[in-house]
## 1
Amino acid sequence: MVDKQSPLPMYYQIEEDIKLRIKQDEFSSGDSIPSERELSEMYGVSRMTVRQAVLNLVSSGLLYREKGRGTFVAEHKIEQPLLGMTSFTEDMKARGMEPSSKLLSFTTAPSSSDIARKLSLNESDEVYIVQRIRYADAKPMAIEKTYIPIKLFPELNEAILQGSFYSFVEGVKKQTIGRATQGIEAANATEDEAELLHISVPSAVLLIERLSYLQNGVPFEVVQSIYRADRYKFISNISRQ
Ligand code: 16G
């Protein structure tokens, strides 16, 4: 399988072969891959060469190591296009996954100056502060903290937020959601976040802040989300010109 005459380094050829086996489901997510010794016999190369290939696949996130247990195939990341303004519920359903939420807290408070500015409110105006864990097929994907002006949706309650907030805005309130500005940055999960997301410490997460507007230009939510970086990959199509 490894072409020793090829100008491509042997570790690279092994990496590509392991990637292909994962793609063809010969190695499925959660499965352990053969040991270094087995791989070196399989490819007829030294253990050092195999180690290099495996290390590269671990650093690119395709494989992960568990101390004392071995090396496993990581779950495929959810590829989230940075394009349409979709909701978590829609995103998961579109992938054939079952969305669900756990409401961690639902409170009201006068808006802080930062949130008031973003939502074009006075500081005395109250906002709902909602914290939810979002699950796909019962696995935690993200933690969301949402600020919503009370005056826009006075009847909002906990039951509504167990389901889809966007369905409530559009289906029940008959408001059209227009657009949003969104920023993404990297961070390390805190211990509390890691526990809620079922990830170890240290783990990288993606922080996303979205400020969304109704079609009429009125801002209706500020959402600060913490996404599992091992499960999400944001993709965009770009073109020159
Ligand atoms: C997404 C949005 C969030 C929105 C939520 C509504 C991002 C980064 N955030 O999670 O702003 O509030 O969907 O989801 O995409 P829902 O309709 O399922 O409650």
## 2
Amino acid sequence: MASSRKMVEFFYDIVSPYSWMAFEVLCRYKNVWNIDLKFKPAYLGGVMHGSGNRPPGMVPNKFHYMTKDLERVSGYFGVPLYPPSDVFEAMFEKGTLNAMRFVTAVAEKEKEGDVLVERVSRELWKRIWSTDQDVTQPASLTEAGLKAGLSASELEEILTLSKSQPIKDKLKSVTQEALDYQCFGFPFTVCHVNGKAELFFGSDRFELMAHCIGEKWVGPHPDKPTSKM
Ligand code: GSH
């Protein structure tokens, strides 16, 4: 019997490399699993602050482990991840507040559907986590937006919108939504199953997620299954 359609909310920030992995996997599965995937661009700095957590990269042993682990997950998920030359500067000094306000503005402008949010997020991830490019300056955000298929005039409007109070408030409220689920890090996926929210932290919980929503996990490339579970 076909399972009923589940709503799946994906909270992420492009500062998070593990979120990129999970994002690409969910994009591959969104038409394979019987789900309505909803992107929830949020701010990881706000989640860390609000939950009393601290970025794992701030703990030297975790940073060392993650450097190796990210190399492995990049190969496993088939996502071209190459850490920026100065990870601390990119993640913590420059940060992604402007970038996530920009994505929030794209979401606001798009209203129906998530196609542009998906493409813009991917272009921003590529910049910070693949080609070591800036994601803080208006010119950088414009370049990502153009690659994602937006026009120069649309981007001008989105950039202005991204600096507005309603967009700042929207990013805060989506971040708060994640915190209301007791989120402490990204990626954070909320699957609505039979009126209950099933919460998943990380890009390494897909097998369990599939089990909870009554779907099959066949590896990171559902078009080329590696497992017959
Ligand atoms: N095991 C998870 C995975 O494989 O995806 C790790 C995910 C992870 O480390 N996420 C970072 C985070 O928010 C952001 S890139 N961590 C919070 C924490 O570890 O408490």
